[in-house]
């Protein structure tokens, strides 16, 4: 009886959930000149900028320490 109860609960929740795929397809396939990584709106733009900032800062930090490691030691 527990198995039947779980199946009924699962099937009920899946019937109540709305399929959002067609809506998302309309958004991401729209020919509006935006790259796909920022078509999702403000949140996507903020996440993209945060990712690029962290990437550039990390690259700069790594290059700084490589440059420091290449310098000859002072006596």
From TrEMBL:
GO terms for molecular function: oxidoreductase activity. The chain crosses the membrane at residues 46-70. Keywords: Membrane, Mitochondrion, Mitochondrion inner membrane, Oxidoreductase, Transit peptide, Transmembrane, Transmembrane helix. InterPro entries: COX7a, Cyt_c_oxidase_su7a_sf, Cytc_oxidase_su7a_met. The keyword Mitochondrion applies. It is a single-pass membrane protein. Pathway: Energy metabolism; oxidative phosphorylation. GO terms for cellular component: mitochondrial inner membrane; respiratory chain complex IV. GO terms for biological process: mitochondrial electron transport, cytochrome c to oxygen; mitochondrial respirasome assembly; regulation of oxidative phosphorylation. The keyword Lyase does not apply. It is found in: Mitochondrion inner membrane. Coiled coil: none annotated. Belongs to the cytochrome c oxidase VIIa family. This is Cytochrome c oxidase subunit 7A1, mitochondrial.
């Amino acid at each position: 009886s527990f198995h039947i109860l779980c199946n009924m609960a699962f099937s009920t929740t899946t019937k109540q959930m709305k399929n959002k795929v067609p809506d998302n397809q309309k958004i991401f396939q729209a020919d509006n000149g935006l790259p796909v990584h920022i078509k999702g709106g403000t949140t996507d733009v903020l996440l993209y900028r945060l990712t690029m900032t962290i990437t550039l800062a990390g690259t700069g930090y790594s290059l700084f320490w490589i440059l420091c490691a290449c310098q000859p030691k002072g006596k």
